[in-house]
Design brief:
It is a single chain. Helices cover 14% and strands 26% of the residues. With 507 residues, the chain is of the alpha+beta class. The chain has 3 domains: 40 residues, no CATH class; 216 residues, no CATH class; 215 residues, no CATH class.
Length: 507
């Protein structure tokens, strides 16, 4: 899937290596969510691959190329924009608010379209850098004086359930006529415009005294796209490189004569089919990194009404015992800001008796201090790891240990692979995940395998997601007075004409 998808799915069957073109539904057959989802994935992969082949790794239409960087030094600069008076007044109000705070170093992001690896990023209205809807601004993102920055896009897919989509202003996913039944979820494309300081000495710029520094850097970025990720972003962006494999083992002491159990050669002993999700929580190398897991793909969530010191009030307590909470469960407090910033805070454990009337849940330890509001769609997500004689939890999560099998439950095991001799240590990034379908009918898990002699063994694979895509946009400078300079020479965007312009001989 490659997005962060935590829905209640049976499994993810899309495999681009099979080169399937479409899914055929057959008469009188059971319909599965995986088949429908695979059809969408096939079409989406085709469209985005086609766009990448035609456009390149990134680019925007010449007449509507989005994400122009516009320096705003004083409020009068807003009057030069070709927008309505209402939009200007709104921007002026934002500018006044920013100028009275510590966020006075800012710039505007222009409207339009831009494609990043075939994914269409749309900015529908002018917005200040610190006012992006899907990128909560924090102190780390503030621009420093006397610094040169690369402005770049970070693009990825986020999973949206009815809880995250709830709003008083816009109709949500759920159908009122069906009593707001929880039916489907959505995939949302997230673009976040970020900045990173440029260390000029690392770029090996040409010795040309006639070119300004900004133009030199922009030219280097345009002619060598890999320099963006490998050099400029290397300290800010670290994709996960961990490898994992999974299997189901035959439990010790299994009774082959017990007719009440699955076949004696079965290894997965769960009573139901499950989609296990193993997700990295704390990033880092083995020993520092931690992970959490869910037998329901992380889809068991509860909307939050109020957060206390050691209690939390929920909107509901689940539809049945399988999708509910019990004493000892580990939960994570999540909201839009938490997800969009990729945070990883300590988990909390449910304590004592849950009050089903008041829908209050007592906690053994309170959530780390942070404010949540109804507008940010707060929820708690249940995770299913538990401490035992073989596993010691750290802040509710399990430390990543390489080179040995780790038992989850019901015979399902995972294995984090060690790097090859002489290779760099594996890095595990927050949000990286692997999906492991477990099936009661076979007593096994579905996992890629290879032959070793006459035996089939599981192979290690990189994370199934979340996949981030990056594109350089602009080179900006901040002077000693805190004013941003965004020269035309610093424009790193790739622009292409449409077919009509090509037919008219325009370039």
């Amino acid at each position: 899937m490659q997005g962060e998808f935590r829905g209640d799915f049976t499994r993810d069957t899309f495999n681009p290596s099979k080169q399937f073109l479409r899914v055929f539904m057959q008469q009188g057959r059971v319909q599965l969510d995986a088949d429908w989802n695979e059809q969408v994935s096939i079409l989406l992969d085709y469209v985005q691959t086609l766009a990448t082949d035609l456009i390149g790794p990134y680019g925007g239409p010449k007449d509507n190329c989005g994400f122009e960087i516009i320096a705003i030094a004083k409020i009068e600069d807003i009057d030069t924009l070709q927008i309505s008076k209402t939009e200007k007044d709104d921007l002026k109000a934002q500018f006044t608010k920013l100028s009275s705070s510590n966020d006075k170093i800012n710039f505007l992001i222009g409207t339009g379209h831009y494609y990043v690896h075939g994914k269409l990023c749309q900015n529908q209205k002018y917005v200040f850098y610190s006012g992006q809807a899907n990128y909560p601004f924090s102190a780390e993102e503030k621009l420093e004086a006397n610094q040169t920055y690369l402005v770049y896009l970070d693009v990825w897919e986020r999973h949206i359930s009815f809880v995250e989509d709830e709003s008083d202003l816009v109709p949500g996913i759920r159908e009122i006529a069906l009593g707001k039944a929880d039916t489907t979820t959505r995939s949302q494309l997230i673009w976040q415009l970020k900045v990173v300081p440029i260390i000029v000495a690392e770029l090996s710029l040409p010795e040309n005294g006639d070119q300004a520094l900004t133009q030199k850097i922009a030219g280097k970025v345009k002619t060598d796209p890999k320099i963006t990720l490998n050099t400029i972003l290397k300290g800010s962006v670290k994709p996960g490189t961990g490898l994992l494999k999974a299997q189901a083992k035959i439990p010790a002491g299994a009774d082959a004569n017990d007719l009440c159990t699955i076949s004696p050669d079965s290894r997965y002993r769960g009573a139901e089919n499950q989609l296990y999700r193993v997700e990295i929580h704390q990033s880092g190398e083995a020993g520092k990194a931690t992970f959490k897991w869910s037998r329901e793909n992380g889809s068991v969530i509860f909307p939050v009404q109020q957060v206390g010191d050691k209690t939390i009030t929920l909107g509901h307590l689940g539809w049945d015992d399988r999708f509910s909470l019990k004493t000892g469960d580990w939960v994570e407090l999540v909201d839009d800001n938490y997800e969009l910033q990729g945070l990883a805070k300590p988990l909390c454990q449910v304590d004592f008796t849950i009050d089903p009337m008041e829908m209050t849940v007592p906690l053994k330890n309170g959530f780390s201090p942070r404010s949540v509001s109804e507008q940010s769609h707060p929820l708690i997500r249940r995770w299913d790891q538990q401490e035992n004689s073989n596993i010691t939890l750290k802040d509710g999560t399990i430390p990543v240990v390489e080179g040995g099998w780790i038992d989850l439950e019901s015979g399902v095991e995972i294995y984090f692979s060690k790097p090859k001799e002489g290779a760099p240590a594996h890095f595990y990034a927050t949000g990286d995940y692997w999906l492991i379908p477990a099936r009661a009918a076979t007593g096994d898990v579905e996992w890629l395998q290879e032959r070793e002699g006459n035996t089939l063994v599981p192979i290690t694979v990189p994370p199934h997601g979340v996949e981030h895509h990056y594109a350089p946009m602009w080179i900006i400078s901040v002077n000693a007075d805190g004013n941003v300079t965004a020269e035309a020479e610093g424009d790193c965007r790739c622009q292409f004409p449409n077919l009509c312009q090509l037919n008219q001989g325009q370039s």
